[in-house]
Write a structure and sequence with these properties.
Elements (H helix, E strand, L loop, with lengths): L4 E3 L4 H7 L4 H6 L32 H4 L4 E8 L6 H21 L4 E3 L6 H6 L3 E8 L10 H7 L2 E4 L22 H36 L17 H7 L1
Parallel strand pairs: 1-2, 2-4, 3-4, 4-5
Helix pairs in contact: 1-4
């Protein structure tokens, strides 16, 4: 029996994107040219063979095998990127990951919410979760918080090491959150609340359909310990 794995971070999606980095983004990242090793020590060196199924990455479908696996694919944004360039990098990394997931759709499932993880694993596919490491793009346009969430972004950190437009990392922890960072957090909470409401609405529709089919009250499921990613019991009480 294989126990399910939920790996919260890898740089594979970012390294995929390095293979065909637009020239202006390559310059922002300190890379000497498209596909060439980065000059910045912040950036990992891409493998020679690029293939999410069985290529040269540390994490591939072949290496995962039959283990039930949920994988967070980070868009890593170096501190050197200005917010506008960070937004462009997010688009580039997301596009590369989209194409790779479509190419290997028989092995990967791009999930757009926490509720999509278990069904993907039940189908025998790897659940691909989008994350951002150093979400300084939100300082370029705060509406990107909701726009990214609609594209399936489920987790994001506000900074990396250096002081940034949203928050400061390891290099200057005393600086804390900026005003823009506080607003970004508020928007992120809104995005989580929207996802919570969507799950509640789906649950209510499902129970209504069961009730109509059986001619009686629909059964109410009780959450297993540590199973829910939101307060399911409170959800039941509110319905």
């Amino acid at each position: 029996m294989s126990y399910p794995v939920f790996d919260l971070h890898c740089d594979t999606a970012t390294m995929l994107a390095f293979q065909n980095m637009p020239a202006e983004l390559a310059a922002s990242a300190g890379m000497s040219g498209q596909g060439e090793p980065p000059a910045s020590p912040d950036l990992p060196k891409p493998p020679a063979a690029v293939d999410l199924s069985a290529g040269g990455f540390q994490l591939t479908a072949e290496k995962i095998g039959a283990t039930p696996w949920a994988q967070c694919f980070a868009c890593f944004i170096p501190d050197a990127f200005e917010p506008a360039s960070a937004a462009a990098l997010w688009e580039h990394v997301s596009g590369c990951l989209d194409r790779e997931l479509m190419r290997y759709g028989n092995r990967f499932s791009g999930v757009r919410s926490a509720a999509g993880i278990r069904p993907a694993l039940a189908e025998g596919r790897i659940a691909a979760v989008r994350t951002i490491e150093n979400a300084r793009l939100f300082a370029h346009d705060i509406e990107l918080v909701h726009a990214c969430a609609e594209r399936g972004l489920l987790m994001a950190s506000l900074s990396w090491n250096a002081p940034g437009p949203l928050a400061s990392g390891h290099d200057a922890p005393e600086r804390g959150l900026t005003a823009t960072g506080r607003e970004a957090l508020r928007r992120m909470e809104e995005a989580v609340a929207d996802a919570y409401d969507e799950v509640k609405h789906s649950r209510a529709k499902f129970r209504s359909a069961l009730s109509a089919a059986s001619g009686g009250p629909a059964p109410r499921s009780q959450p297993a310990p540590r199973r829910a990613m939101y307060d399911a019991e409170a959800d039941e009480d509110e319905d």
